[in-house]
Amino acid sequence: MSTLKALALGSYSEVKYHPFAGVDREIEQILANDLQVFSSEDYGLLNKEALSDYKLVISYTEFSDDKIPVEQSSALLSYVAGGGGLLLVHNGISLQRNQELGVMLGAHFTHHPEYTSLQMSIPAREHPIMQGIEEFVIEDEPYYFEMHPYFETTVLAEYPHEGAMHQAAWCHEFGLGRVVYLMPGHHLASFSVKPFREMIRRGGLWAAGLL
């Protein structure tokens, strides 16, 4: 087992849409050969001292109207800007409820139409995260985003829906650190789709500076 560690944050107790139970084990398993993943719902771990132990933070955090305390959001911002990795999966983009974290994510979730079959295409085949990953189909929620203007990010995957192409994954550097967002992951079945599993693995390693 590798001694390099990752922290995965999700919701076990107060769950509206996306329970972390089960998903946590999948993420731990996907990254097991490279990173030891510790799963928790304790946002209190977002402090400088605790974060210094981790190469990567993974967000599968539940959508909520309540911002996380500014001490925690500031610690996460500093962690990434100082060289840490951040991987956000599906609802993990809910960190946008803190405006300062939303800026770091590169886009803003607006809404999603009904769950459906999505055809993923790969516009960034040469990027290290996507090498060897072919187009694939996944049953999931089609999240819609507004990409931040004047913010450079690399779209890794996209899908056609209702007559337009929509972003499904992207990545960028933020200060000395790296941020990766992957849209699929609404329920446990998504994590058995091999190309998506590989995107989680390679996305996490790239964000952590290990790829």
TrEMBL record:
Organism domain of life: Bacteria
Protein name per Swiss-Prot or TrEMBL: ThuA-like domain-containing protein
Lineage: Bacteria, Bacillati, Bacillota, Bacilli, Bacillales
Segments forming domain ThuA-like: 28-207
Transmembrane segments: none
Pfam family for this entry, one: ThuA
Species this chain originates from: Paenibacillus pseudetheri
InterPro entries hit by this protein: Class_I_gatase-like, ThuA-like
Gene3D superfamilies for the chain: 3.40.50.880
PANTHER family linked: GALACTOSE-BINDING DOMAIN-LIKE SUPERFAMILY PROTEIN, SECRETED GLYCOSYL HYDROLASE
